[in-house]
Amino acid sequence: MVLSLVKLCAREVVSDHSSSPCWLNCVPRELYRSLLNAAFTHCRPLAVGELVQRWPERILTVGGSRKAGQCTPNRLCVQALLLAVVRGLKNKRSCLQVLDLSGLQCEHERVEDSMGGWSLTVALCSMVIQARAAASRAHKRDGERERKRGLEAEREKDGTVKRDRGTVGCVNYSEESVRGHREEKLGKMECTSNGENSIGHDLVMVPEDESVKGVRRRMEIQKRKTSELNISNDGSGFCKQNWDEVVVVHARADLFINARSWERVRDALSHPGPLRLHCRYLRVEELSAVSIASLLSLLPQEDLHGVDIRYSSLGVSGLAMLLPLFAPFLQLHSLRLHYCNLDLQRTQIGQQGALQEMCKGLGLLKRLNRLCLTALRLPGHLRLLLSSLSQPLEVLELPYLCLTSTDLAYLSCSQHAPFLRELDLSENCLNESSLPSLRRLFGQAESSLYQLSLCGCGLSDAHLDALLPSLSCCRVLRSLRLALNPLSRMGLLSLARTAAGIPSLRLLLYPNPLEEYEPGLPALPSSAQLLDWSLMEEPEGRDLTLRLLDEVLSLRGRTRDLIVTSDFLNYSPDLSVDD
Question: Which UniProt keywords are present, listed alphabetically (predicted)?
Answer without folding.
Answer: Cytoplasm, Leucine-rich repeat, Repeat
